[in-house]
Amino acid sequence: MSQRKRLYIQEVATRDGFQNEKQFVDTDAKIALIDALSECGYAKIEVTSFTSPKAIPALRDAEAVMHGIARKPGIVYTVLVPNVRGAERALSSGVDEVNLVMSVSESHNRANLRMSREQSFAQLRDVINVVKATPVAINVSLSTAMGCPMEGDIAKEEVLGWMHRFADLGVHGITLCDTTGMAFPSQVGDLCRSARDSFSALELTLHFHNTRSMALANTLAALDAGIDRFDSSLGGLGGCPYAPGATGNVCTEELVHMLELDGYDTSIDLDRVLVASAQLPGLIGHDVPSQLLKAGRRLDLHPMPPAETVPEQHAFAKEGS
Amino acid sequence: MSQRKRLYIQEVATRDGFQNEKQFVDTDAKIALIDALSECGYAKIEVTSFTSPKAIPALRDAEAVMHGIARKPGIVYTVLVPNVRGAERALSSGVDEVNLVMSVSESHNRANLRMSREQSFAQLRDVINVVKATPVAINVSLSTAMGCPMEGDIAKEEVLGWMHRFADLGVHGITLCDTTGMAFPSQVGDLCRSARDSFSALELTLHFHNTRSMALANTLAALDAGIDRFDSSLGGLGGCPYAPGATGNVCTEELVHMLELDGYDTSIDLDRVLVASAQLPGLIGHDVPSQLLKAGRRLDLHPMPPAETVPEQHAFAKEGS
Taking every annotated instance into account, which residue ranges of this chain make up the domain Pyruvate carboxyltransferase (chains A, B) (predicted)? Predict the structure, then answer.
């Protein structure tokens, strides 16, 4: 019956969001949150990261979380994996997918991962060879694909070149990440069209940050170019070390709110997402960037103020706005 | 030489923004800010509001501000005017344009202006008759044109109907206002196409709020429908009484940043706008919503951290994002 285009929403808050939080989120609370998210209609949930507990203490409970959650059929439970050791831990935990990461920018790769891109590629190739012997899917997230905070513009050919190298290794999906919110709509449209044309067999995901308030505008541009799969983060959790105080990943509830209004089928239960998002401040000890959580959905209506209680100042106070 | 499409940016911070501020901004500071804005390349600046000083004490210095500013040729200096008394004050101050306001929604008009829409229309018709005898231009801002926080959806025909009534009175321009940030992209595109088709002789402005983070996405939709004129507010100043804590008007520097990256010619000097925006917290006593002010422009680059200072936790900390 429905003519609405199906989109796939992938939640990253418990990995990309929590890894940046100073306050450790209790393992049971992580499990309860992920179980709640599993009832929200996501296509994929990035559960945690199998990195060294010393490197990311916030996610030191990766095994316990993966084993504790109630897996819902149909949802892909993915985890970040930096190397073969992490891949082995992830495979032992029965993940559906591993997500590998490197930067398209040499400077950002060195700053973030402390090795050259070629060293990262060699390390990830080893991981791919291990995982390819199993039924577990492999996704590669390419950071700084729309700009590097140290180098600036990244040539589209550079991004497509790294996509080719990973596609040749047989990965299932690639995520183009706007790591520090440098993407703008016409750039996104151009990159997405080229990526779609060149890699029609790959599962292609766009990963936006709202650092400069363009995440939803960039999403429109990606949709226009045929993209149907988006990462997003509950509450807009996830920061950017190069922009202190700036907002983080595109906010799941704001993304879904817009997409559903625009007639897309995200399969997401926005009520449940908002309930889950409202719990975040209690878990991490601070407010989240989500504006939708503050303002409510567009049709969450307000009562008419009784005439006698309208303060004098309020008359005309919003004129013209 | 340039093939870039010209867009017209209209600054509303000193009216739509300041009127909501508790802290009175000193008259000299207002004048200095507007003089700085006059050097930024705006098509229009909404200077102040000729309402009753009791109704909006924040703008009680309307005459002094209008007389104090250095008017730059080519910029339209407009002011909000609620009635004939306000129009007379505005005309005495030598404004280029008066901006009249009413809501498309009956409930919002009653809550905001404490009269019915028909009463507002009659009052504004009187203003138009006074101003039409002068060379001063007349713009009408239609509030809640994309949704009412009390009534919900507003039929497009309702908006077009009010536009017709004002067009018949001979106004020069009409602004469609998303007063509480309820607009979404496909709705904006549809309304703008209809408005453009029906009123090709009118100067048509779109006025977005970022309450639910869709202001820049809605701007893309309006551009797509041929709109070339946008209100915006320095720093994102301007609130929404129905969404406490939510962001306000679309932020000038974020709007211009995106539009220029997308290849449009706004004629705005973004450097100067950012300098002006950075002064706002000192004037109003609190932070502004602008993310761009925190994050900087996309090509404001950062130095590469020295290898030995990259903390252990930072390695992998931003992976996948």
Answer: 7-274
